[in-house]
Design goal:
With 90 residues, this protein is α+β, with helices and mostly antiparallel strands. The protein is built from two helices and five strands, in the order βααββββ.
Length: 90
């Protein structure tokens, strides 16, 4: 099965590079899975064409990406933590 070439915008690469070791390992595993199939059932389209998509790679890491001509461009890497919660569900 062919894989997509993965590229990052500067902003997405900077967010990726700030991940700690455990987060980075999970991130890399998720990107590897996306490179094989960027249209996984757990991903959602964020454009009318469906080529721009979003997926939560882990509980705390969300990426937005676009798929075009055998390439996967990651343009947003968002990392969440419990300190970012305004209202808890407790």
């Amino acid at each position: 099965m062919p894989t997509y070439q993965v590229h990052f915008t500067e902003m997405a690469a900077a967010a990726r590079d700030r991940l700690d070791g455990r987060q980075r390992a999970a991130f890399d595993k998720g990107i590897s899975l996306l490179a094989r199939d960027p249209f996984l059932d757990v991903s959602r389209p964020i454009s009318a064409t469906g080529d721009d998509r979003t997926v939560r790679l882990t509980q705390n890491i969300l990426v937005e990406y676009t798929v075009s001509m055998g390439r996967l461009l990651i343009f947003v890497v968002e990392v969440f933590n419990d300190k970012d919660i305004l209202v808890t569900e407790d």
